Amino acid sequence: MAFYDLIVVGAGALGTFHAYHAARAGQRVLLLEKDAYPAGATVRNFGQVVPSGLAGRWFDYGRRSLEIYKAIQQETDLTVRANGSVYIASDADELALINELHDRYVSVGYPCELLTKARCLAQYPALQPDYVLGGLYFPDEVSVEPEQMVHRLIDYICQKYKVTYQSGSAVIDCQSNYNGAIVTLAGPRQTNRQRFQADRLLLCSGHEVRLLFPDIFADADLIISKLQMLMTEPMPDVALRGNILTGLTIRRYESFRECPSYAGLTTPDYLAELKQWGIHILFKQATDGSFIIGDSHEYAPATRVEDLGYHTQAHINRLILNEARRIVRFPVEPIRKEWAGFYSQTDKEIFEYDVDEHIRIITGIGGKGMTSGAGYAEASIRQWLGVAV
């Protein structure tokens, strides 16, 4: 039986960044993934790293995450692109909110710039002029390719920091003894039950709550969010670079909720159905010129994720595309792909639970994982393992 300092179960962004920070601190790390490759929320999102949308400590984690992404990018290509982020205001209420958020970020030294309507249209000529009143630009924010980033990160930590990575390996049992934690694996690569031991074990299982410690997860009050997203055919001639966030995003994101005028914000009738489905419109152009467009939000308790269904709803996709047409000038069809993503979240910001002195569960980071997971994992490893990272 092989021995490690730390076993991380789950190779999404949250688990992999924990493995990265631990290995960087000199720990012997085993990273396990139940699927043949990561296929959860980490690869089903926009790939936008936007601390500007977060509040409190998550903004701080996001800001640190930007530094981590950029530092790794200098050593290996994680697909990080420093194209910035822009929030486009479409009415007077949204314009007031971006002005208030600008003032707050200026006060804490986070680079941002208010853009007039003319500046927005000059910088982003693919926007519909009738939609735009102004914008708030964050030059330091980045984007990544979600279907590639975590795979490249795993390769990097295995090569540079000697992390042992094993995919296709579902952990079916996890127990502690006086020496640490022991895991038992099952999967197509395990004809016999394979076991590993470590001083510590970290479970970052995403929205999977039934395989390990189901009694703990049953009382965790975790909620699963289902998101619908779409990808267009490549449009290399369209100039709409960076992370594009729109009026509905301004009305939804945490950072704007702390602005003085947010309390008086009302929903216009023409946005009511979009709000009902948790729709806010984002655009992110991939390196091949295609656009990811979305998204929506439906919710169910984590123990009843099947209630959300395995399908996407055509009606929700129509709502998304109709609003997208109001925002951009280029045709948003034909659509090449459409999919549903799932992530777990909690009203307590994140679910952290110590099963015992050797085993810790961390999940429920919600939609903050790609933006703040790298910085959060650094602080988490530093606090839990007591090592310098």
From TrEMBL:
Pfam families: DAO. The keyword Flavoprotein applies. One of its GO terms (molecular function) is oxidoreductase activity. GO terms for cellular component: cytoplasm. Keywords: Flavoprotein, Oxidoreductase. Residues 5-378 form the FAD dependent oxidoreductase domain. Gene3D superfamilies: D-Amino Acid Oxidase, subunit A, domain 2 (3.30.9.10), FAD/NAD(P)-binding domain (3.50.50.60). SUPFAM superfamilies: FAD/NAD(P)-binding domain (SSF51905). Transmembrane segments: none annotated. Its cofactor is FAD. PANTHER family: D-AMINO ACID DEHYDROGENASE (PTHR13847:SF286), SARCOSINE DEHYDROGENASE-RELATED (PTHR13847). Belongs to the DadA oxidoreductase family. This is TIGR03364 family FAD-dependent oxidoreductase. It comes from Fibrisoma montanum. The lineage of its organism: Bacteria, Pseudomonadati, Bacteroidota, Cytophagia, Cytophagales.
